[in-house]
Request: fold
Amino acid sequence: MNSTIKTPFYIRLSFMVISLIGITYILYIGKSVLIPILLAFLFAVLLFPIVHFLNSKLRFPNGLSSTVAVILFVALILGILAFISYEISDIANDFAEIRKNINIFIINIQRFIRTNFHVSIWEQRKYIEDVTQDSVKKGKETIGTTIVSITNSILDLALIPIYTFLILLYRTHFILFLAKLFRKEYHAKLREILTQIKGAVQSYISGLIFEMIAVSALTSIGLYFIGVKYAILLGIITGILNLIPYIGILVAGILTILSSLTGSPEVSLILGVIIVNLVVQLIDNNILVPMIINTKVQINAFVSIVGIIIGGQIAGIAGMFLAIPILAILKIVFDRIESAEPWGYLMGDNLPKTFIWRTKKSSFNDSETATKSNP
Reply:
């Protein structure tokens, strides 16, 4: 006779919290190994339709189709980087002009501060020198760490295409491994979860790519109309950096402002650059993101922000980029496991308008249920 042991809620909650803490700690201590694998997993899911097309339509062997897909992906990335490098070399030729215009701009700002805030130019320069000396001291202390970090990043980037190829090559092997972990009665639910994860990740990554193209085009058009040199290059850089939450757009704005000084040191041009970036961000945050991203991943804003912050603390920029797809995968799993379904609901974005606490039944009901029961 089979007997089911029901554990109290506080024990189940404790196990859930301890599990989350353990997973977070494992991600933190193993981020140098796990982050490239997770990035490769996202790229493998994105490239799977190409592999499937080569397998089914062109009758390519699995190894050859995986190789071709990864080579096409790497070639596309290298092509974009080559274009950016070529254009940046042109900007480097204008460095003397940029430096001259920066000096003129700084002098104009200093005169404005002296006239309106009665702070002499000597006092301003003294303050800047003090801040610069402190920055130089800190920079010398961290330069070794920075070199090591850059080296590790280059090695990780080299491993990602290899991991992506291997995940595509052994995808069936991994699926069979997951099937062996669970009893046969759970295979239908496992298949549903894997299908939902594949669809969510593909939709999210394709949505990010479309958003990147839209932001690049809008920024390029705006910068072109206000007369900024290298408008297309700066638009592409802005679109790519926009993929990094919060930090990316700030870095892109600074680079755009500095590059705009190749033409003129006028404050009006810099204000124009700032206005273009603000308008594009308003369009992105209020139209593109809700229409493209939020419809693909049903994660509410609070959980998204907390997840991005935690991802940044664990693994920096890569962690911030991975936060949303990982949260989407967790939500899909939670929604299909009965004991974890409340956590999936907490992460979701479907909020009822009002809640009514029913003391007799000790449950929450939304406004529609309350209306039906209490006409």
Q: What stands out?
A: The longest strand covers residues 355-358. The chain has 13 helices and two strands. Residues 139-150, 360-364, 366-375 have pLDDT under 50 and may be disordered.
